[in-house]
Amino acid sequence: SSAMIFFIIIGAMIFAKFLTLSGLPDVLLTYVSGLAMPRHFILGMILFIYIVLGAFLDVVAMLAITLPLFFPLLSGLGFDGVWLAVITIKLVEIAVITPPIGLNVYVVKSSVGDTVSLSNLFRGIMPFFLMDVLTLIILVIFPQISLWLPSRMF
Predict the structure, then answer these.
(1) Alpha carbon 132 to chain centroid, angstroms
(2) 3-state DSSP helix/strand/coil percent for the chain, to nearest 5?
(3) Is the pLDDT of residue 139 over 80?
(4) Which residue, among 10, 79, 13, has the nearest Cα to 46 in the 3D structure?
(5) Whole-angstrom distance, CA of residue 47 vs CA of residue 137
(6) H/E element holding 123?
């Protein structure tokens, strides 16, 4: 398991270097900036992509593939880096409980054994999933919530 994670991280580093050398993030930023879409709509599309990817990919793989592309794009659109990190972590929390690959649900299933079925566990996480989505919406609408403490530090 550790070797697999390290191979993913090494591959992500190579992928990020490739993206930097190819100039793809700059081209993508120029293209997206030229579109007649508000920046929050673009953010919403990227949030949706993260939620869909989180249902099918491991967290490390998802972050390794998307961050080298999405972070420069969103930073270039004027979003704060600390706020983007908080939003990304919230999306990762949602991803680890989203079916069919909700890894945290499978961890709970392995610890409870056969006393609770997997379908009951996925039904049981729905209130947590909905509250995570509500928290994500609040953080997107009011970014000052996640930026207050860092603004006091520096």
Answers:
(1) 13
(2) 80, 0, 20
(3) yes
(4) 79
(5) 10
(6) helix 118-124
pLDDT at 1 (0 to 100): 67
Radius of gyration of the chain (CA): 18
Which of the two residues, 46 and 2, has the higher pLDDT score? Answer: 46
H or E stretch at 97: none
DSSP state, residue 98: S
DSSP string, 71-84: HHHHHHTT--HHHH
Q: Which amino acid, residue 120?
A: N
User: Per residue in 56-85, pLDDT tens?
Assistant: 777 887 888 888 888 888 888 889 999 999
Locus of tokens 């972050």: 63
